[in-house]
Design a protein that fits this description.
Elements: E1 3-10, E2 14-23, E3 26-36, E4 40-41, E5 44-45, H1 48-66, E6 72-76, E7 83-92, H2 100-114, E8 119-131, E9 135-137, E10 147-158, H3 159-171, E11 175-180, H4 182-189, H5 193-197, E12 199-205, E13 210-216, E14 219-226, H6 230-241, H7 245-254, E15 268-272, E16 278-282, H8 283-308, E17 315-319, H9 328-336, E18 340-342, H10 356-372, H11 381-389, E19 395-397, H12 402-411
Parallel strand pairs: 1-6, 6-11, 12-17, 17-18
Antiparallel strand pairs: 1-2, 2-3, 3-19, 4-5, 7-10, 8-9, 8-10, 12-13, 13-14, 15-16
Helix pairs in contact: 1-3, 4-10, 6-7, 6-8, 8-9, 10-12
């Protein structure tokens, strides 16, 4: 066991924590924990104390799985009012050949010149480097040069988006190693040749919001948030059949389909409504309720894409907890004319799409370490020994999986 990384995604419905190990360029899942979220509304922290308790619980659950305490983490911060800007920075090369330090100086020059007082810098996605204002390449480390110019996409959010998350984690004694956005996490989870070469979008349907992210060759360029998600489907079911929200959620996840085509007209579900009456719910009918709301959400997302860009969108990937719904592919085909598909997480043991952001942020973090020439792990040597003693229980992502290919891409092996 070599390097261990943890990532948290603080959502409105659930808080997700993923812990992974990178060993010989293969990703192993060590733990994937989740807990119901409290004190969080539409991705923003509204009650810090309730949110703090929820976050503490998910860290406790992950720690119990691993036998160690998680003390460091990467965190995804809210994407509200996120801004993306291509920046250019310059640096003089200090030695005969270009080092990671020179690259970082060029980046920071660009960040410093473009950061505004009301925004907090979140992440950089590299585009390319130019040596001596002539030769362009992706990774110039080790090449001779006198000057270096870096281009990158810088993401920024309002300061409150970051500070609210930072203060909560610090109050729990958790060290925040890095921050990121859902747009960065999702694209790294589903990264492919198509994403790296084309212009497209990823739609993340969460509990209370749906986030639409645009990408140009895998680089995020814009984000739009719709205030509608899985809980609206729960509300429709609860209203239609006079049920409480917990029972409506259960029916959505365990009985209904995302498209009536998948439903059985003769299948029924028996339950007790809020009035104390025993009722039978027809699968075909409740699936129509789910399908109707999903069509509305996806149509709104489609309209937002048309407003965000005039360019042809080559791919649309749908993720988030709601994308686990059976039969969703049929609804996607009707709304997007077969251009959209459901994202598939290739890492065994964390197939639920609600983990796509947390997992992808680990992938992104490791890629930035490689580019900077840094070696880093989030656990101590003592804790590493404990993990190593139980490593036989952990799950491996083999080289033929997409994540294996992603790490091969980043690490050049």
């Amino acid at each position: 066991m070599e390097h261990v990384y943890s990532s948290i995604d603080i959502g409105s419905d659930t808080i997700k924590l993923v812990v992974c190990e990178l060993y010989r360029n293969h990703l192993n899942l060590l733990a994937a924990a989740e807990t119901p979220a409290q004190g969080i509304k539409k991705g923003l922290i509204t009650d810090p104390e309730l949110a703090r308790k929820s976050i503490a619980k998910v860290f406790k659950e992950a720690g119990e799985m691993l036998g160690i305490e998680i003390k460091k983490v990467i965190a995804s911060v809210p994407s509200y009012l996120a801004e993306y800007k291509i920046i250019t920075g310059h640096a003089k090369v200090e030695e005969e050949t270009i080092s990671a330090k020179d690259m970082n100086k060029a980046y920071m020059d660009g960040v410093t010149k473009n950061l505004t007082p009301d925004k907090e810098f979140v992440a950089l996605v590299p585009i390319d480097f130019k040596i001596n204002n002539r030769t362009v390449m992706q990774d110039p480390k080790g090449f001779p040069g006198e000057t270096l110019t870096a281009r990158a996409m810088m993401s920024m959010v309002p300061k409150k988006n970051v500070y609210s998350v930072v203060s909560l984690l610090e109050s729990l004694g958790i060290e925040l190693v890095d921050i990121s956005l859902g747009s960065i996490g999702d694209v790294n989870t589903f990264r492919s040749k198509e994403i790296d070469n084309d212009y497209g979008a990823i739609i993340n349907i969460g509990s209370e919001t749906t986030t639409i992210n645009l990408y140009n060759k895998g680089i995020p360029t814009d984000t739009k948030i719709i205030n509608m998600g899985g809980k609206d489907i729960d509300g429709d079911i609860a209203f239609m059949y006079k049920l409480d929200s917990a029972e409506a959620l259960k029916i959505k996840e365990k009985f209904a389909f995302a498209h009536r085509k998948s439903a059985n007209v003769n299948d029924t579900y028996e339950t007790i409504n809020r009035e104390g009456k025993k009722i039978k719910i027809n699968q075909f009918e409740v699936s129509e309720v789910v399908m109707s709301r999903l069509e509305e959400i996806l149509t709104l997302a489609k309209n937002e894409l048309n407003l965000l860009t005039n360019r042809e969108i080559k791919y649309i990937i749908v993720t988030g907890g709601v994308s686990n719904a059976l039969g969703l592919e049929y609804t996607l085909a009707e709304v997007f004319d077969n251009k959209a598909k459901i994202g598939k997480i290739k890492l065994i043991g964390v197939r639920n799409h609600k983990y796509s952001t947390a997992l992808g942020n680990i992938i992104y973090f490791i890629s930035t370490l490689k580019l900077k020439g840094k070696d880093y792990t989030m656990v101590s040597k003592e804790d590493m020994d404990i993990l190593s003693s139980t490593s036989k229980h952990f799950i491996n992502a083999s080289s033929d999986t997409m994540l294996g290919k992603v790490f091969g891409y980043f690490f050049g092996e």
